[in-house]
Amino acid sequence: MHNIVMNTKIKNLKKITLTIILTIITILSLPMRSFAYVDWPVDTNVLSEGAILMDADSGAVLYGKNIHEHYYPASITKILTALLVVENCNLDDMVTFSKNAVFNVEPGSSSAGIDVGDTLTVRDCLYAMLLQSANEAANALAEHTAGSIEAFANMMNEKAASLGCTDSHFANPSGLNDPEHYTSAYDYALISRAAFKNPTVTEIDSATYYNLPPTSRVPTGQTLYNHHSMLRKTSGNFYQNAICGKTGYTSLAGNTLVTYARNDSIGLITVVLNGNKTHYTDTQELLNFGFANFKNIKLNSTDINTNFSSNISLIPDFNEYTIEPDDNASISLPNDADINDIKSTVNFEENSESSALCKVDYTYNDYPIGSVDIVAKKNENYVADDNNTEESAAAENNKNGFQNTTKNFTNIILNIPKINYIIVGACVGGFLLLLLIIILIKKKLSSRKSDLSDRELRIYNLLKSGWSAKDCGISEEEAKYIIEKH
Question: What is the pTM of this model?
Fold first, then answer.
């Protein structure tokens, strides 16, 4: 009982201390602001009613126009459909086209000429849906994945919500006109960003053509071509850095277009909604604007001295943990912006579904430019005492831990750019005081066990379990002495 109580106290102490230490490290590691902001670039002309330019890596919105307004998406819906299918199906599974899949489409809408009873692989159907925009392929994939179009629509809404979408509702897998089928530029950028992180979706969607196997209507097979003309070199809309995307059009939705492009500095996602034959020029305008004005910076690069990654004992006996950011975390900045003007906010929020200790949100001139989760992970090289008696050796560990802490904390300070040393001094003083308190508390806890003899410890445990002094064969005075001594 005694060991359990002490272990629990020490573990709780470590958890509290980790939060405090992480806060101090975060404050010290973040660059100070010089208040010499570069204006956020806004000089672009987009005619479509809704539009967004998003950094594909950081998720930062670089430009937006009516980004939370509701619009009909039309066939760009199929990007979300493709993501769900790839996540839930085997590409070599066979799909049989039902009557509902073939005929539950608008007259004159996009089709690959697939008929009732035809069978194709999931892979074939994905190419038909993303390149040819075949609505019957979208319906068949939905039925194959979820059992029905209605059930698949529920999956679409659940997936969208999980990605942070709040302005969308989906009723079908193809983009068929429906009052309950709508999205926003921001939501669909989130969806597209998630889809293009999936290598299978990107590989299929980036193909310029695909040879579809024979079907009942086309027994010799057919070649399908990607409708997104910015991907085709023979097109007047060809864009060198474009990787993939999806077109859409209905009379209600107007022209819609999603595009993913990348150069050596940054990856960009554009979404334009309710365009009037300006979807390609608007997209080119957004991409040119993004590539000319913005850069993406990896948080683990030497450009930023935010040093969360650690395998050191930040506090005594705490070398069983490492503190690490997301390996792929990054931020977006205007090309001429100074990294030292970044503002960072650390949020410690309890979330039972997340292992993150905190989330760091970055802003530049009040523009959100990215965020990263900070996680404490078990150190695989850490070996705990077999007898669970780490507290009995606290004095020696405290000595070594204090030396390691001082050395490594100094290393952290040396990496701080343009830091306000008055703040540093206050933080360091508080940090050292905290360490002293921890050492004294742990010495107190660890000494309690040695203060009691084996006989007294056995008697103490019996007394705590309800035995009387008489039951233990001792006087009331001795019982009182043992309890007070403990």
Answer: 0.73
